[in-house]
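Hey L., structure's done. Input below.
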Amino acid sequence: MAAKEKTEKKKLGLSSQIFIALIGGAIVGVLIHYFMPEGYIRDTIIINGILYVIGQGFVRLLQMLVVPLVFCSLVCGSMAIGDTKTLGGVGVRIIIFYLCTTALAVCVALSIASLINPGIGISLDAIETSEVTVAESTSFADTLLNIIPKNPINSLAEGDMLPIIVFALFVGVMLAKLGSKASTVANFFSQFNDVMMEMTMSIMTIAPIGVFCMIAKTFAGIGFDAFLPMLKYMGSVTLALVIQCFGVYMLLLVVFTRLNPITFLKKFFPVQMFAFTTATSNATIPLSIDTLTNKLGVSRKICSFTIPLGATINMDGTSIMQGVAVIFIAQVYGVNLGPAEILTVIATATLASIGTAGVPSVGLVTLSMVLSSVGLPTEGIALIMGIDRILDMLRTAVNITGDAVCTIIVSHQNHALNREIFNREDVAPAKK
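Output:
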């Protein structure tokens, strides 16, 4: 009897609950959209009231923890690594992997879009448009300088992740250098990091409710009507995302670590589902770190550094959307892109991912920079905004998967990967 109850409890774990909430929310959202009459009760009370408040309230609870958790994780991670030479080696390797996977993602996207031709035969009148927000272009020199915080307190208050990362690494290195002289401060960060992780896990217990409300609101608002004229575009983006996630990443995992990609996907699936539903890389940081450490055998001091960094500079899914969108918009407006323009798109989309905030739909804002780099009208963004929410969810799942795979590879290269934890069926938390 006890064994039976234990099995049932295992079947209804958090990942199962989130998946059920995802499906249930989609069904309820579609029913609301098509079978509930428009009016104050449906639009104001249910969709923009109950569903919106609960869904966004859950996301805000997670976002509340992101900055202190990222800061403390990076301080503890760099402090644990201690040796600045080792830290520098990990940093250089992870950044190279992040940039390479992003460039590969753009190439995959451009190749798929060129084969499918999503913009050919599309009538501008058939597509629902939305208001466009255009990003300000920043020079590469300014992008590099913006990494260094002028006021770290201000960066923490505004959630400006790259300056936070730099300051946290500097603090961690100095604490490691001072050793016992700064043990009180070091213990504070270590204990505060444990507090933030515990708070995150507590908030995750209500994840199914938040997920249900977010998905229900999404489908209640758009239904299927907005999808039909954009099926070729959506298919192109989705196919490129699938190839990147299950092809490119898994190939890299096998080539560099000889690990079983099926085992990785099985254990990392709950994180992917969570990223899919929240559509924010930042909110997924705590769950990614916890899964990589306790289920996949990655050293916490490595992933505490690489995952927050990846949520800021490694946006492969976003880059895929931008690559497909460039081809789509060029074809809709009848503009031919030559080899030089294609190379420009690859370079711009890769660089645009650096410093991009890990929040919903930010890829549409940075897309304007990519379009401007090859002379395409930024008004074209309005064509894809109506259906971007669903694609945003997919590409966020790809973003965090890329962060995890690169982290596992770098951890393996630094002899900080526990293969026994990765391969075991029992996924009980590992001892710190």
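DSSP finds 19 helices and no strands in the chain. The CA atoms of residues 90 and 264 lie 22 Å apart.

-- N.
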